[in-house]
Amino acid sequence: MSNLSFQNELLIFTGSETDGVSGIAGTNTSKILYNADDKGTNTTVVTTSAVLNGIEYELDLFAGYNGSTLAIIDKDRFSTQFVFASGALTQTETDSGYISVSPTLRRLVALGYL
Q1: Which residue, 41, 45, 58, 114, is the most exposed by fewest CB within 10 angstroms?
Q2: pLDDT tens digits for range 73-92
Q3: In what helix (H) or strand (E) does residue 4 lie, and over which residues does it extend?
Q4: 3-state secondary structure 38-62
């Protein structure tokens, strides 16, 4: 397993692969973890998806992240990591487990909560 630290995170909601509608506040939410420095110069938005614990997340990402490792992490801190392939409709998991460190997790540790 590959423990990776990420510098940036965005909140994403669970959705349906058939209707693409995000969940409402209070439902199971997750975050996408990334490093903004990896973006490159291509700001073309591509739509792709990735799966975490059987839930498919539809993602709109800059093509400049192509080749960068990204992760989706859930409320229990379980994550899936993938190397973003901008031409793929669905991303291929490269690793999963309790292996991704987000800015929020680092803050909780620093404050003594974990």
Answers
A1: 41
A2: 888 889 999 999 999 999 99
A3: strand 4-5
A4: HCCCCCCEEEEEEEECCEEEEEEEE
Domain ranges of the chain: 4-110
> Residue 59: which residues within 8 A CB-CB, separation 6 or more?
12, 32, 47, 48, 49, 50
Alpha-carbon distance 61 to 44, whole Å?
8
Q: Name 62's Cβ contacts closer than 8 Å, sequence gap at least 6.
A: 39, 40, 42, 43, 44, 45, 46
pTM over 0.90: no
DSSP 18-42: TT-PBPPTTS-EEEEEE-GGG--S-
